[in-house]
Amino acid sequence: MEQALKGMKVIDLSQVLAGPYCTMVLGDMGADVIKVEKYPKGDDTRTMGPYIHEESYMYMMVNRNKRGMCLNLKTEEGLNVFYELIKDADVIVENYRPGVTKKLGIDYDHLKVINPNLIYCSISGYGQTGPYRNKGGFDIMAQGLSGLIDMTGDKEGKPAKVGIAIHDIAAAETAIQSILTAYIHRLKGGKGQYIDISLVDSGLAWTVWEAAAYFGKGEVAQRNGTAHRVSAPYQGFKTKDGFILIGAGNQKLWENLCRHVLHKPEWTQEQRFLTNSIRAENVVELEAEIENVLTTESSDYWLDLLDKHGIPSGPILSYDQALHNEQIQSREMILDYEHPVGGSMKTLGFPAKFSATPGQLVKPAPLLGQHNKEILAELGYSDETVEQLVRDTILNDNADKSGIR
User: Fold this and answer.
1) What stretch or stretches form a coiled coil here (predicted)?
2) Are 178 and 121 contacting, i.e. CB atoms less than 8 angstroms apart?
């Protein structure tokens, strides 16, 4: 089956999540992604459990559809191998702290001399410029700096981190769209270029509603639990046996909710709830009034009734329930595959459904150094030379020692 990015060569120097997620998606779309891991132990994610036969499940989740090398870039011989590798590369992705690549001799200014067409993408906590450029920055620090933690959680509770590493994924998605934009530019006759991605910038760019409220009215986003900032009712509500979500965010849906589900037609004329903006201002009172009704019946009862009247609603699932949900299963968001060490495995599917060039799970995440010989053979290195590089501590061939190729 055809893949959209077949022929694109990507060198992945990144580790943990933001960079590897970016290159995983490129690999899913057909790019030849070569993951060059640091010598001798590889990506730090390899040390994170859970483990399946001593292989990290965390590592395997974001490194599918890649070939793997383990190369010592702190040696002259290792650098020479790397320079050969990038001569015909289209893209390089790295997430070292600013300044480290220059010390290693693998920064953009150095590599663009070797390959002027190279698209070089750096991902870091705070970006390559600004007073924070040299600070170490993980996802949680980015959530704190962007205001995300302060605006997340219950109104009367403590600030809360978003449940996933949202700035890491935001940075990955920003990197993907930026790399593809630069690639299209190059296909149109342009040259390669440098892309500077910040975790903070990437997540902050998603706060569009909050920015509108602040720039337009001076309002600072507050913790609202599940409530929306400008739309109501649009949140979670307590029922007799749990919680459900209701999104009656426009006037027609609100009136249908009142008349046909809650059997409170008088609310449509009440001054406190007359328009969407007024309801949002009185959301605490609105929540209490609605829950007085909802707590008389079960979640299933209300969800059935809401569906019957076309009002957007849904359950609040635990993560295991989500993975077994019939909608998620039917969309093939859980994939089965075989790993040479882990055996039968599961991973997440492809969120975009292409009619002609769908994402494909072609290969599992590489073992450490699994494709050293294969990749170097493509560059003209003999088996004897590769074996000498292993003896000289330039390459780690851990996969060879396991007997798996």
Assistant:
1) none
2) yes
Judge whether 146 and 220 are in contact, CB under 8 Å.
no
User: Where do the H-state alpha helices sit in 246-382?
Assistant: 251-256, 276-281, 283-294, 299-308, 319-323, 326-330, 372-378
Q: How far apart are CA 14 and CA 296, in angstroms?
A: 53
Count of Cβ atoms closer than 10 Å to residue 27 Cβ: 29
Alpha helices in 188-248 (DSSP H): 199-204, 208-217
Query: Pick from 88, 61, 174: which is nearest to 124 by CA?
Result: 174
For residue 9, give the nearest of 108, 121, 118 by alpha carbon.
Answer: 118
Q: What are phi and psi of 107, to 5 degrees?
A: -80, 170
> How many CB atoms lie under 10 A from the CB of residue 289?
18
Query: Which tokens sit at 231?
Result: 């739309």
> For the chain, what's the residue count?
405
Whole-number Cα distances in Å, 234 to 126, 176, 225: 33, 31, 11
pLDDT tens across 86-141, in order? Answer: 999 999 999 999 999 999 999 999 999 999 999 999 999 999 999 999 998 999 99
- Taking the C-alpha atoms of residue 232 and residue 251, their distance in angstroms, rounded to an integer, is 10
pTM above 0.90, yes or no: yes
pLDDT of residue 10 exceeding 50, the answer is yes
The architecture that CATH gives domain 9-206+331-401 is: 3-Layer(aba) Sandwich (3.40)
Q: Which two tokens stand for residue 28?
A: 């899913």
Catalytic residue IDs: 168
Q: Is 236 within 8 Å of 277 (Cβ atoms)?
A: no
What are the sequence ranges of the domains in the chain? 9-206+331-401, 234-318
Burial of 81 (0-12, 13-18, 19+ CB in 10 A): buried
What is the DSSP code (8-state) at residue 334?
E
- Residue 33 DSSP SS3: strand
Handedness of CA 269, 272, 277, 283 (dihedral sign): negative
Residues 45 and 57 sit within 8 Å (Cβ to Cβ): no
Kindly state the DSSP code that residue 52 receives in the 8-state scheme.
Answer: E
Region 42-63 average pLDDT: 96
User: What number is the average pLDDT over the span 2-20?
Assistant: 97
Helices (H), 188-222: 199-204, 208-217
| CA torsion angle 229 233 238 241 (round to 10) | -130
Tell me which residue has tokens 């010390």.
Answer: 103
